[in-house]
Write a structure and sequence with these properties.
Helix content: 25-40%
Radius of gyration: 20 Å
Structural class: alpha/beta
Distance between the termini: 31 Å
Strand content: 5-15%
Length: 295
């Protein structure tokens, strides 16, 4: 795959830069760790709800505060030169300081030259006034997170998510991109041990909505990576993918990429840590991996 540097350098919004008098035109903002979910592959620095579990599991206090303060103030002085802003989180759509920042860009007439990129967990849909605000910007890129089309699996990996709301929200974004906004919707499933088996169904559902997908294999925490699975389980997943009746060639290509990565190395020595961590979270959250994944 292309690196972030290569992608930024090729981006229409950011590829023209002046090495003599350099300006920051591409900015990524993780505004705070305010989030409404407790995803199993996430950390307290990105969702404060995970903070107490981390302390109990690792037996030490993290180096960051439980609720991180908004750090967006430093970005205001950069607005005149910004062409591309990527918002992560936390969940950016629930952080009011981000909307205030966008309003400033509109008020100062910078918005028309700025592309906005979001990573969102799909549990929140913007208010009408915020959609009107978005219309002032050059383009909106919406990276939606749907890890499994299977409701119980999606809820297991993305604890506290409302699966039905997430699906409705994704459909709303799809409609917005076709009818209202200069918006591009991209789905980015985080592929782990907990959703890899049903990835074909998930990607096919997204492709039917004409949403491009970019499944990303997780690398951290490393014990949740698909490379940790024992070989007999990997073989079972590989056989399913190879025999799956893909309707979309793109979906098949994405899935086979994940298979190739899964088979590329053996990290099964981390399986005990996966079991230990999973059992810990199951007991804390009243869930059961064994019941959720009988296959």
């Amino acid at each position: 795959k292309k690196s972030l540097r290569e992608r930024v350098n090729a981006n229409v919004a950011t590829k023209n830069y002046n090495l003599v008098d350099p300006k920051i035109t591409y900015l990524e903002l993780a505004i705070s760790n305010d989030c409404n979910l407790m995803c199993r592959m996430c950390l307290g620095r990105y969702s404060w709800k995970l903070y107490d579990e981390e302390i109990e599991y690792y037996g030490k206090i993290p180096t960051y505060e439980k609720k991180t303060r908004s750090n967006i103030d430093c970005a205001y002085e950069l607005l005149p030169d910004l062409k591309y802003i990527k918002f992560t989180g936390g969940e950016p759509l629930m952080i009011k300081e981000h909307w205030e920042f966008l309003q400033e860009a509109v008020d100062k007439d910078y918005a028309k030259d700025i592309t906005l990129n979001y990573s969102t967990n799909c549990t929140i849909f913007p208010k009408d006034k915020h959609i009107e605000l978005w219309k002032e910007f050059k383009k909106i890129e919406m990276a939606v997170s749907l890890d499994s089309i299977v409701e119980s699996e999606n809820i297991y990996q993305r604890h506290l998510t409302d699966h039905k709301v997430a699906l409705k929200t994704i459909k709303k974004y799809s409609e917005l991109s076709k009818n209202t906004l200069r918006m591009h919707v991209l789905a980015r499933p985080t592929v782990t041990i907990m959703n890899v088996y049903t990835l074909p169904e998930t990607v096919e559902w997204l492709e039917e909505l004409e949403i491009s997908t970019n499944p990303s294999h997780l690398t951290n925490p490393e014990w949740q990576s698909v490379t940790v699975l024992p070989i007999h389980t990997k073989q079972k997943i590989k056989e399913k993918y190879e025999n799956f009746d893909f309707k979309s060639s793109k979906a098949k290509s994405h899935c086979m990429y994940i298979v190739n990565y899964m088979m590329s190395k053996d990290d099964s020595h981390l399986l005990d840590e996966f079991i230990r961590h999973t059992d810990f979270l199951d007991k804390k959250r009243g869930q059961s991996f064994r019941e959720q994944y009988p296959y």
